[in-house]
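Re: that backbone. Tokens:
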């Protein structure tokens, strides 16, 4: 490699010859006449004169030919500090203050660091490259490159997640929108058909009356003609008049019958108050809430949809589809009266012990899904045919059931966790979510599971079963629950709240979604409260200890008795009322059958 300022030529003294380095770059070979100690460069006489005249270099020390180095290899290459000082930009950094661990120039040293220990950077830097500090910096740079690459990878993943999440939520919203529209279209069509039916019935009735009064009018005209014809014959007029009187009495009776039959249906369309509240609400159809903010890539939940189930009974296959959220007209349970109907047997030859039917949920139509705690099974029951149509075994004792988004339900398994069950076709077991404790009741709300535990705790869990928050004591530190066996989530004025029944404390506790206590309900008639079912603005509560079924009006806080021992209720566990079937279904302790009550019309 050629070095500026030195030309390799044949002969022993080639390395001792020096030339003007600036001229050499222009391919001119001129002997060196001077050497700059600052620039460390050889100059010819012309270049030396220029170097002395330039403003930037006129202060440089130039050695003449007699004092300058004789050859380039004898010059030790030195590096100068050229970085400007932050405080004195016209000065270069030459020192390092070890006291303040900062870089300084000569001015800084005199002005602010007189008492400090400052080292010359040119001395410190000689072995710096081989030292630990430089090595640590290089390692830090390499590690930072790696972390930046990982961060960039995570950002790209989150870009994909953001796009996927938006697409998924839009799909869910549109799907739910279609379900709501479908429901309202079906309800509208049902009302239109009912109106048409009443109209046709009234038109048929009125059509049947027309020939009757027309015939009656014709007879009356004939009578009138007959009498007018006999006006000049008094004897015949007398006779005809006597005959007519009996006919007129009959005709009056016929007219009275026509008048009685001339009754039509008077009806008017009345808006559903629940729908009116929904329209007036700012959160109608749903809300968009931030449920999780993390700096890691997360997978989104499956979308909300319908619960589909295919069961076999009486040799026929039945396909069931149920929307998770439906809009139904509220039923005032307090005004309903019931009469006992035929019980539905639940114990089958494959069951090893008596049934313990701890809870149930409605799938669709006349179908119920029911937990059998003692036999480790979940059963499907048809309310319309009063038959049990399907059973599936689960890995433990099932206690409570709730709907999940998509074709799934979640079942709490005592001391095991939460069993997911796919209901898209034949019932099939899904994942088993492990939880910390003996879980009992369960509800679902916006990608969270609300679960009660045998030990006296209510918790909000994420989809993996990890507790986000829990409550077991009140604000004074006292034990809040003893046996919170059942709970449910209810919307009150578009706000979700939780109701918890405590079997031993004889209370119903209302919590917000942060598990803060809102209120507590307790009446003497409520003993050993168990299953809770929401219907409109009312809760159907089983009172095990008093053998009654109570109704809690959420708008007033009043609690009244629906049924009791007089109606044959004995230690009820769970109750469900179906407005579509007009049936009340009740499970009882140590009873292998479902008790069924029909609504009295």
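Recovered sequence:
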């Amino acid at each position: 490699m050629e070095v500026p300022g030195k030309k390799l030529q044949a002969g022993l003294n080639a390395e001792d010859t020096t030339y003007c380095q600036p001229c050499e770059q222009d391919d001119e070979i001129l002997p060196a006449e001077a050497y700059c100690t600052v620039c460390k460069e050889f100059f010819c006489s012309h270049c030396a004169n220029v170097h002395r005249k330039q403003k930037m270099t006129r202060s440089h020390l130039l050695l003449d030919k007699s004092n300058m180095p004789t050859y380039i290899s004898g010059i030790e290459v030195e590096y100068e500090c050229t970085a400007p000082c932050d405080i004195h930009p016209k000065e270069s950094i030459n020192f390092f203050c070890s006291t303040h661990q900062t870089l300084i120039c000569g001015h800084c040293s005199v002005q602010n660091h007189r008492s400090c220990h400052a080292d010359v950077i040119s001395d410190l830097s000689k072995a710096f490259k081989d030292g630990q500090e430089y090595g640590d910096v290089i390692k830090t740079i390499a590690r930072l490159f790696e972390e930046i690459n990982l961060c960039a990878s995570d950002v790209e993943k989150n870009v994909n997640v953001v796009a996927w999440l938006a697409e998924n939520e839009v799909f869910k919203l549109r799907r739910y929108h279609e379900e709501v529209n479908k429901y309202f279209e079906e309800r509208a069509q049902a009302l239109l058909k009912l109106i048409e039916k009443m109209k046709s019935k009234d038109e048929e009735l009125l059509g049947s009356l027309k020939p009757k009064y027309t015939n009656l009018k014709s007879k009356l005209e004939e009578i009138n003609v007959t009498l007018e014809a006999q006006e000049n014959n008094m004897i015949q007029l007398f006779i005809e008049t006597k005959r007519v009187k009996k006919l007129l009495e009959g005709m009056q009776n016929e007219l009275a019958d026509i008048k009685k039959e001339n009754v039509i249906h008077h009806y008017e369309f009345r808006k559903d108050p629940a729908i009116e509240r929904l329209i007036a609400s700012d959160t109608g159809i749903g809300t968009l809430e931030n449920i999780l903010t993390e700096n890691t890539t997360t997978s989104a939940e499956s979308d909300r949809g319908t619960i589909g189930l295919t069961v076999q009974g009486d040799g026929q296959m039945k396909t069931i589809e149920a929307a998770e959220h439906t809009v139904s007209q509220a039923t005032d349970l307090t005004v309903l009266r019931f009469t006992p109907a035929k019980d539905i047997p639940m114990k089958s030859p494959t069951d090893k012990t008596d049934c313990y039917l701890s809870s149930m949920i409605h799938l669709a139509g006349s179908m119920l899904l029911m937990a059998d705690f003692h036999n480790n099974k979940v059963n499907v029951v048809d309310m319309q045919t009063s038959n049990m149509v399907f059973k599936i075994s689960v890995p433990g004792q099932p206690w409570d059931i709730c709907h999940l988004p998509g074709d799934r339900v979640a079942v709490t398994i005592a001391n095991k966790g939460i069993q997911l069950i796919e209901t898209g076709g034949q019932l099939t077991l899904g994942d088993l979510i492990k939880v910390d404790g003996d879980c009992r009741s369960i509800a679902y709300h916006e990608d969270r599971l609300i679960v009660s535990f045998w030990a006296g705790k209510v918790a909000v869990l994420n989809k993996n079963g990890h507790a986000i928050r829990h409550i077991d004591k009140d604000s004074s530190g006292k034990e809040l629950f003893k046996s919170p066996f059942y709970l449910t989530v209810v919307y009150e004025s578009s706000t979700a709240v939780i109701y918890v029944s405590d079997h031993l404390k004889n209370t119903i506790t209302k919590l917000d979604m942060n598990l803060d206590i809102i209120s507590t309900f307790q009446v003497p008639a409520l003993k050993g409260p168990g299953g809770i079912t929401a219907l409109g603005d009312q809760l159907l509560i089983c009172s095990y200890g008093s053998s009654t079924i109570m109704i809690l009006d959420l708008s007033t806080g009043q609690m009244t008795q629906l049924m009791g021992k007089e109606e044959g209720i004995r230690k009820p566990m769970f109750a469900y009322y179906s407005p579509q079937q007009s049936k009340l279904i009740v499970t009882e302790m140590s009873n292998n059958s479902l008790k069924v009550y029909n609504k009295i019309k």
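The chain has three domains: 14-74, 135-270, 335-345+354-599. The mean pLDDT is 83.
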